[in-house]
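Each field is set out as follows.
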Amino acid sequence: MLALAEEPAHAVYSAGYRERHDLPGPSSVGIALQALEKKEIAGRTSDGDRCIIEPFLAEWLRREQRPV
């Protein structure tokens, strides 16, 4: 969720995206993404980018995960 909050993207399965956000392999990302979409937490923008649907949730995640 934090990766999507920080950087909505079309290529969430790409090696570069996964490396930037310290994510596991593509199959694990896919399973997590499917669960988030099923719960209507994540979705797609009109451009096709994956994102957190609720902008306030995305902002809260970014704010709460900043290093202290």
